[in-house]
Amino acid sequence: MNLQTVKYIGRGITLAFAIIIVFGYYAISQCANTPIVEQLSPNGDWKLMIFERSCGSLTGNSTHISLIKSDQVLEDTAGNIYVAEGYPEGYNAEWLSDSSVKVSGIKGENHLKVEAHEGIGVIYE
What whole-number distance in Å separates Cα of residue 32 and Cα of residue 94? Predict the structure, then answer.
């Protein structure tokens, strides 16, 4: 083999590894949120959302709950008031007033469980 051929082979191998690394990172880091429940607050200012979040086969599915402004869409981020392992079956969330929500059906290992978000109290049962 001449030097030119070795250079082409080296560049090809480097490019192949770069593609594998980029594709692998992209495949692992992609998460998707699937809304399960969406409820507007009594005054229409907020949305209470229960959703399933899946980040690929390495992490499994999890239950997330967020409070977001009513004119916003659910972004591809984690919940801001509650996060737990497993599917969101059996969870319920409801508005008690414009400034209070109740979340029931809590199960699994909790990773986030806040008592208030932007002046809205959260009660867990």
Answer: 24
> Is the same domain home to 13 and 55?
no
Question: Model's pTM, two decimal places?
Answer: 0.75
Q: What is the pLDDT of residue 12?
A: 60
Decide the pairing of beta strands 120-124 and 46-54.
unpaired
Range of the domain at 21: 1-30
Per residue in 77-125, pLDDT tens?
999 999 999 999 999 999 999 999 999 999 878 899 999 999 999 999 9
Confidence grade of residue 23 (pLDDT, cut at 50, 70, 90): very low
Separation between Cα atoms, residue 35 and residue 14, nearest integer Å? 41
Q: How far apart are CA 40 and CA 52, in angstroms?
A: 19
90-108 burial code (b ≥16 CB/10 A, e <16): ebebebeeeeebebeeeee
49: β partners:
38, 66
Query: Is residue 20 left, alpha or beta, with left meaning phi > 0 and alpha meaning psi from -120 to 50?
Result: alpha
